[in-house]
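Reading a protein record of the kind used here takes only a little practice. The integers have meaning only within a learned vocabulary of local backbone shapes. With that in mind, consider the following protein and its fold in token form:
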Amino acid sequence: MASFASAADKAAMEAEMPWPERGAALAIYPFLTTAKDKHGSRAAISFQLTSGPNDRAETLSWVQFHAHVSQAANLFRSLGIGERDVVAYAMPNSLETAVALLGGAVAGIVNPLNPMLEADQMAAILRETKAKVLVTLKAFPKTDLAQRVAQAVALAPNIQTVLEVDLARYLPVPRRWLVPFVRPANKVDHQARILNFVREYRRQPTDLTFDAPDVDRVCAYFHTGGTTGMPKVAQHRSAGLIYNGWVGHRLIFRETDAVICPLPMFHVMAAYPALMSIIASGGHLIFPTPAGYRGEGVLDNFWQLIERWGGTYIITVPTALSALMQRKMNADISTLRGAFSGSAPLPAELYNRFRAATGIEVIEGYGLTEATCLVACNPPEGEKKIGSVGLPMPYTQVRILHLDGEGQVLRDCGTDEVGEICVSSPGVVPGATYTEAEKNKGLHVDGGFLRTGDLGRLDQDGYLFITGRAKDLIIRGGHNIDPAVIEDAMMSHPSVAMAGAVGQPVLCFRKNQANTRPAQVAGRAACRPIRPRDAAVSAYP
């Protein structure tokens, strides 16, 4: 770990040598192999199907994890996946999800899908990426994912093979024996062959049967839409993934860390800052339940899960932090050193509440799918400026630009002047952010800086403040009004747990009222009594 307390520390790291001379791996397989060689039998990744602090869990060592990824990559190659072919997965969190992600990135191009999408939305992405193989769940109680995927595959004839994961194997006997009797039916109308993922990859050698040279290439597609049938698909190069891991290890994580990650692995935050940083550092990554924060009992048992695993960091989002503030702290969390929050701006009042309740600092970060995630974070050893997402990462340049209506650069904004945040980093692919060339038009300016669509400002110390989205700016009487100003004022009220922009989910609650629980209130900044039947809070943006 290196000191990262100020903009001067960032500059010092960059002055040591240019990024290309760092000697970091360029491809995923040698990156993972280095972790295996260094850390061997130490725990790499763990998963528990249910949320109880004493419930059954399964752990893979670095040697085992490396072997499983190798076997999965060999399987994908045997199914016709080359470097430019796509392996998709529509999976909740599990050990197999991580194996599919890395195995797909080694054999070809991996394409995670949000498993909560409807069938037509999944099908649109599968057609866009031309995926040949899809990894998903075998029909399982309390989820209709397998049924929606079967419908999606019928609408995406490019899928040749469906590889199923049966979560029943994580259940203890005799509960495991009961699953066949309660497994829901799944009508299949597609022509793709269906195989058991675990059974098939375990038949493969534990070393690669093909060459995987240490060269940078496109190895992942992440969708940034999918709700309209016309998704944007961002393409990520392997060196960008590894850059995320290098940053996480250099600035935060070490081999003794146990990181609790209840975020989904279809999201870049879990896939890159979490998983890649663990590979770079040799730490231990824990996934509690397939649905993460949405999982039954996860929020209620969260503090006890930290005690069980000796958690040193948690990966979280503001809505989850808000929900945790309403749970009794009934466990020893003395191992916990910090919480890494992203995906949405962290309200200042929520930051203060969490720190007061836990004594733990929240390291707020900022990133986006189009930049292969990481852009900035609050310096772990430096000043935490409330409302700021911190300093740009080493080797990441952030400019605040004033653009005209055609997207042309007029000038760089001055200190504390609001403009559009534009980014250049090893994770930005100038001119080729999206798979579709038409969607890259106007996306990059002034030598390859990515336009984020976010409004922000840089203060005199180089800290980045996000003030909103360009499209969310409120214009009233000719004046530009930042929605964050309104949200911060609402958050200062003791009866408001969470507030969001109009038209976005808003989380709120009343104190000292029976049956009070967090709830989503779409597009309203009002609190109301919550009925016991209200659904659990959404943990994702």
User: Anything to note?
Assistant: The two ends are 30 Å apart (CA to CA). The first helix runs from residue 7 to 16. The chain has a mean pLDDT of 87.
